Amino acid sequence: MWSGYSTRDAAELAGLPESAVRSCARSGILSDGATAFPARFSFQDLAVLKSVKDLAGQGVSLRRIRRQLGELRRRSKVSAGLSALTLSAFGGQVVVREAGFAWQADSGQLLFDFGAQPAASGQVTAMPIRRDAAPPEPAFALTADQWFERATELEESDPAAAIEAYQQVLRLRPDSSEALINIGRIHAESGQAAVATDFFTRALEIDPRDATAVYNLGVVAQDMGNDEEAIRLYRGALELDPHLAEAHYNLATIFDRAGDPKAAIRHIHEYRKLTRD
Length: 277
Known about the structure:
The chain is an alpha+beta fold. The chain has 13 helices and four strands. A four-stranded antiparallel beta sheet has the order 1-2-3-4. Strand 1 and strand 2 (93-98) form a beta hairpin. Helix 6 packs antiparallel against helix 7 (159-172) and helix 8 packs antiparallel against helix 9.
């Protein structure tokens, strides 16, 4: 009897990296089956994942999509879940369209056109909020730590600007493995595996014992279908940091797919122990 799509099948059908599918499941925007082990994705889950793909293609960061859809699911009274809603992007935000209205997914703020000319079909305009913008700080006035803080704040709203800010960190502090890892992660989330791998590798050249860089290389390998390399990297990351719960989870998914239930169960138990409140 059919019980749902696997993580890899869902990723292929939705056109997303496998890691993006797992992160969507963990964020709570999919069905309970997507968070079970082994994960099984429904038709409705596929519809949501395809919406995630479309929103990312319209310039909304994956981090913002997960957060805003997570908030929308918590507030939504639609029994069929997010798959029953019409979702689109506007101004870098997730927008819900319903019964001729459009509103921001996480806040419920109504969007409409204030202009004199009628909006083109499907277009909406956010209700304006007056802000007194502070003058921009000259780039040379910021320290590496300030650039890093700015970059982390930009990751959700403007990943490209976040990468530029991290590059400023590296200009001032070339040995910042944290900046290299974060740039790599942003590229990995957008499906640029080769670029991501380069940044993670550069981070390891600075600190060969950086478990996060090794783990992220494992994620990229798994997304590319190289399970053997992913297993090697996840195990290496756990040797460096035994508390990396996500490495156990990802190993469990690989062993489950490979038909090794004993290894899969062992790793999912370790994952649950490490994430238990």
